[in-house]
Amino acid sequence: MTQSYSEIFSVFQKYMEEEDNLREAIRVIVKEIEQTSREIITLLQGVHKAKGLSQIPTLCQKAREHFLTVKKQYAVLQEKVPIDEYYRYHEHWRFVTQRLVFSAAFIVYLESGKLLEREEAAKFLGISANPTDQFHVELDDYLLGLLLLADELTRFSLNCATYGDYSRPVQISEFVSEMNVGFRLLNLKNDLLRKKFDGLKYNLKKVEEVVYDLSIRGLKPNGESISVSQT
């Protein structure tokens, strides 16, 4: 044996220390991203207030400005993660990425009524949508972010009806219905995704109930249809 046991294990110890230091550096950056994410979510929560509907353009613009900070933070994070070791450390930032995808999806919906595409989500974060690239938006993170959007839209639908915006709940119902159809096409193997998808079906029923309540009260705008979910 050319090396003693102490020499062999000292190499292991050095490797473990370097690994711990790297993970700590990643955690520090992720905490900064999480703080920015909370600030974005706090801004967007303003749409649920009594005067929030009239402030949607302003709130979305301010939230977009915060995403400029997010891009810089993800750029720093990318520099820390060793090449070809994305999945080794992915657990550190996957949850905040899901929340940021949700926030981006909420912004896009509020601005245009459209679904955030994966490529667009990647642009919000300043990273790639291509899974072959070193640092990218993982598909599961994107899908979970969309499912978080369904949760938020359910609440938003009820608040819109409360504040007298009777068209928006119908639009939300149709949007969530289309999301439900889309997710039904997927063979979900991720346990968390399957569980969240069950929540999507519940959210669809809730938003349809809001529209139905408006209908029987004579408050649903003429020409609007009621989406009916399939179970």
UniProtKB/TrEMBL annotation:
Q: Which residues are noted in the entry as Mg(2+)-binding? A: E152
List, alphabetically, the Pfam families matched. Answer: Translin
GO cellular component terms attached to this protein's record: cytoplasm; nucleus
Q: Where in the cell is it found?
A: Cytoplasm; Nucleus
Subunit composition? Ring-shaped heterooctamer of six TSN and two TSNAX subunits, DNA/RNA binding occurs inside the ring.
What the entry lists under SUPFAM superfamilies is as follows: Translin
Q: Name its GO BP terms in alphabetical order.
A: RNA metabolic process
Main role? DNA-binding protein that specifically recognizes consensus sequences at the breakpoint junctions in chromosomal translocations, mostly involving immunoglobulin (Ig)/T-cell receptor gene segments. Seems to recognize single-stranded DNA ends generated by staggered breaks occurring at recombination hot spots. Exhibits both single-stranded and double-stranded endoribonuclease activity. May act as an activator of RNA-induced silencing complex (RISC) by facilitating endonucleolytic cleavage of the siRNA passenger strand.
* Official protein name in the record: Translin
Q: Which UniProt keywords apply?
A: Cytoplasm, DNA-binding, Endonuclease, Hydrolase, Magnesium, Metal-binding, Nuclease, Nucleus, RNA-binding
Instruction: Write out the GO MF terms.
Output: endonuclease activity; hydrolase activity; metal ion binding; RNA binding; sequence-specific DNA binding; single-stranded DNA binding
Q: Supply the InterPro entries for this chain.
A: Translin, Translin_C, Translin_fam, Translin_N, Translin_sf
Q: Which family does it belong to?
A: Belongs to the translin family.
